[in-house]
Specification:
75 residues, alpha+beta, two-stranded antiparallel ribbon
Length: 75
């Protein structure tokens, strides 16, 4: 089944050491996907990577990213 979400593809510049990852958050999903193989399709580009001065600033931006992704992906 398909689930809408938001993903970050990059090196996580706010955290040390930078580590290249694809991190995906699925909207309104409850379940355990650890150990599962999943396919991720990227539909929209929201913004480039940024290094944030605080976890609070990062969290605020992530909430804005989620709102924009929901607007773009969900009817």
């Amino acid at each position: 089944s398909e689930h809408a979400g938001v993903a970050s593809l990059g090196v996580r510049p706010t955290f040390e050491p930078p580590k290249e990852l694809l991190e995906t958050y699925l909207f309104d999903f409850t379940g355990d996907l650890y150990g599962q193989t999943v396919e991720v399709a990227l539909h929209h580009y929201l913004r480039g990577e940024e290094k944030f001065d605080s976890l609070e600033a990062l969290t605020t931006q992530m909430r804005a990213d989620e709102a924009e992704a929901r607007r773009l992906l969900l009817p």
